[in-house]
Design goal:
Layout: H1 2-16, H2 19-26, H3 48-59, H4 64-78, H5 80-88, H6 101-126, H7 131-144, H8 154-181, H9 185-215, H10 217-230, H11 248-260, H12 265-278, H13 289-311
């Protein structure tokens, strides 16, 4: 186990030598990047009041499930302190080395931070959301943390982030499409630019895994298998409302997303299959017998998941989110 840990740290140190290239390829310049105020009414304008009225008018027809999913997405984005703390504790990410992997974590966090800020301000202005209840759920989610089954292992963590960033891209793209169909053009743009960030971040994490497959293929294969056997849990899997048990609201948030078609069991399977193809799992060479068995499992998994998804029933409706007015 110690040798395995040392190998992982060596691989991380090797990849981290090109951090400047990694950052410039996958993250945007701060001075030219979009900021939340680019998509919100200008509070310094004399037309601020009328702009808010227009925004609220455009939100009136958004359906209940949509608002539930949107708030769940916002709370997930707002729990960013948990994600940064988790990533800085991964083996090979040295908080005392400011130009190594910790630079990636800081700059990734800085980009992600804009997502929750923008969506939070938008729904505050919309008048459709009980902001205090949403804020209570956000505080609970940060306080409760999460358990995603990765430990401090960078290989497992990068599988998780690859999958998770793809999942959030799907979710934000779909909320963008639905917002547009209900006349919320600005909200559609907001969800769209966030989705684009998530796609770019997914590309980064997938590239990290791809490079590890080139250097340490057997251990990377085993890490991928392990994460898929556990199943990828969403970062908000402990989501709850005031007075509830940990995770109680998350199940209903997931049900709403399934009903709405924002994120479904089919999407989970499609993401898995895309990762299997992206990392060229069928053609990885130089792996040991244990990793060969892991490869067999991974290659067969998408079809198994599709059979399960085909049997899934429509999610129930009986639940009240106290976030929605």
């Amino acid at each position: 186990m110690t040798n395995q840990k040392n190998t992982r740290i060596e691989v991380m140190n090797f990849l981290g030598q090109k951090m400047e290239t990694i950052v410039s390829e996958f993250l945007k310049d701060i001075d030219t990047n979009w900021q939340p105020t680019d998509f919100l009414p200008d509070s310094c304008s004399e037309n601020f009041g009328s702009s808010i009225k227009e925004l609220q008018e455009s939100c009136k027809e958004l359906p209940y499930d949509y608002l539930a999913v949107l708030v769940g997405d916002i709370i997930t984005e707002e729990a960013l302190p948990t994600y940064q703390s988790w990533l800085t504790d991964v083996e090979g990410i040295d908080k005392m080395e400011p130009q190594g992997w910790s630079k990636w974590v800081r700059m990734w966090t800085a980009e992600e931070n804009r997502h929750g800020d923008l969506l939070n301000k938008y729904v505050y202005l919309s008048g459709r959301i009980d902001m205090k209840q949403m804020e209570i759920s956000t505080q609970y989610l940060i306080a409760d943390g999460f358990d995603i089954g990765t430990g401090r292992d960078p290989y497992r963590n990068f599988v998780y982030t690859s999958f998770q960033e793809m999942a959030t891209n799907v979710s934000h793209r779909r909320t963008a499409t639905i917002a547009k169909t209900h006349g919320c053009v600005q909200l559609s743009k907001i969800c769209g630019v966030i989705a684009a960030d998530e796609a770019r971040h997914a590309k980064a994490y997938k590239s990290f895994v791809g490079k590890i497959f080139e250097i340490d293929p057997s251990e990377m294969m085993l890490a991928f298998e392990d994460m898929m056997r556990k199943k990828i849990v969403m970062p908000a899997h402990f989501l709850r409302q005031s007075g509830e048990k940990i995770g109680q609201a998350f199940d209903h948030f997931s049900d709403a997303a399934q009903r709405l078609g924002v994120y479904t069991t089919w999407d989970y399977t499609d993401i898995l299959e895309s990762l299997v193809n992206e990392w060229n799992i069928s053609n990885i060479t130089g792996i040991n017998d244990k990793a060969e068995k892991a490869r067999d499992y991974l290659m067969a998994l998408p079809e198994r998941f599709r059979k399960i998804a085909g049997r899934s029933q429509k999610a129930p409706l009986e639940y009240q989110f106290n976030w929605i007015k």
